[in-house]
């Protein structure tokens, strides 16, 4: 399985960004994909998850109402629309299979300045 996250950048408080994850090599038994993030000096944390079959999504409380996860089952891509960004959203963002993570890769850096 190969996962490539992209779309990060440096923005200001209140701005928006859209992250995209290109996934290849996923098996048909895969249930869900998620976005995770790791801020400097902190452990990696859950951000959002989406069921591959149903499209049902769930979010960390810290991003609920601001972030939206979506997937394209044909292109095997997973997007994360991030609105109303805050400085505390600054982190490296990763996508991965939820519950059965593969190699995390480099992720994509999101920096939000006040």
Supply Rg.
Answer: 13 Å
What sort of overall outline do the alpha carbons produce when their principal axes are compared? globular
Strand % is over 45%
Q: End-to-end distance, in Å?
A: 37 Å
Main beta sheet strand tally, sense and closure: 6 strands, mixed
Q: In summary, what is this structure?
A:
With 114 residues, the protein is mainly beta. It has strands spanning 2-6, 9-12, 17-24, 32-38, 45-51, 57-59, 67-72, 77-82, 91-97, 108-113. The strands form two sheets. A six-stranded mixed beta sheet has the order 2-10-9-4-5-6, with no helix packed on it. A four-stranded antiparallel beta sheet has the order 1-3-8-7, with no helix packed on it.
Describe this protein's structure:
The chain is mostly beta strands. Helix content is 0%, strand content 52%. The chain has no helices and ten strands. The strands form two sheets. Strands 2-10-9-4-5-6 form a six-stranded mixed β-sheet, with no helix packed on it. A hairpin with a 5-residue loop joins strand 5 and strand 6 (57-59). The chain is globular. The mean pLDDT is 95.
Main features:
four-stranded antiparallel sheet; mainly beta; 10 strands; 0% helix; globular
SSE layout and pairing:
Blueprint: E1 2-6, E2 9-12, E3 17-24, E4 32-38, E5 45-51, E6 57-59, E7 67-72, E8 77-82, E9 91-97, E10 108-113
Parallel strand pairs: 2-10
Antiparallel strand pairs: 1-3, 3-8, 4-5, 4-9, 5-6, 7-8, 9-10
């Amino acid at each position: 399985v190969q996962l490539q996250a992209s779309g990060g950048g440096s923005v200001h408080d209140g701005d928006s960004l859209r992250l995209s994850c290109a996934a290849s090599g996923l098996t048909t038994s895969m249930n869900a994909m998620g976005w995770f993030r790791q801020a400097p000096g902190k452990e990696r944390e859950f951000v959002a998850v989406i069921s591959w079959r149903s499209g049902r999504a769930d979010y960390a409380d810290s991003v609920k109402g601001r972030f939206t996860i979506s997937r394209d089952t044909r292109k095997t891509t997973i997007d994360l629309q991030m609105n109303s960004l805050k400085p505390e959203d600054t982190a490296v963002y990763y996508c991965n299979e939820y519950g059965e993570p593969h190699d995390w890769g480099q992720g994509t850096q999101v920096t939000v300045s006040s």
